[in-house]
Amino acid sequence: MADIFLPGSNEVWYDSKTFAQWKGGCTVKIPVTLDTIPVFQRGGSVVPIKTSVGKSTGWMTDSPYGLRLALSTQDSAEGELYLDDGHSFQYLHQDQFLHRRFSFCSGVLINRCADEKGHYPSKCIVEQILVLGLRKKPSSVTTRSSDGKVQPAAFTYHTKASALSLEKLSLSITDDWEVHIR
């Protein structure tokens, strides 16, 4: 057993494996073995993750992303993603980078540019979104692209974990888009 202090008395933390919610500002006892290492995500954060494993970062350049949203006690979250070629200084000398900002508030996830001077071509898409801490099952989920096209998105709501899972998306990481959860 390990004693783990989760800071912030007005915050919520999520176990990244079980999605269990923990109130901040207290110490919790968690079993730790060589196979299980406790990892927590702070409520109010958006963490981009690669959805597949590759032999190297070079092999994974165009691999799809997933977004893991951990909602705060105010049902909001934000995070960022930075991309460049990973090996040169073109991000510095030629502004070849991509910096995106994700924000979730009032049931809407927004992907927008965080730095207009950066330009980096990427084939990456967001294919999965997991929203932790969503208190009720939505009646609909739609995506809205930068050209205004609205499409329904298939979703699964996990009542016990208070989690919403969106799969089989194809949202370009380079474009502005929104996901509306109603």
Automatic annotation (TrEMBL):
The lineage of its organism: Eukaryota, Metazoa, Chordata, Craniata, Vertebrata. Residues 3-47 form the Glycosyl hydrolase family 31 C-terminal domain. GO terms for biological process: N-glycan processing. Transmembrane segments: none annotated. InterPro entries: Glyco_hydro_31_C, Glyco_hydro_b. PANTHER family: ALPHA-GLUCOSIDASE (PTHR22762), NEUTRAL ALPHA-GLUCOSIDASE C (PTHR22762:SF60). It comes from Cricetulus griseus. Gene3D superfamilies: Golgi alpha-mannosidase II. This is Neutral alpha-glucosidase C. GO terms for molecular function: alpha-1,4-glucosidase activity.
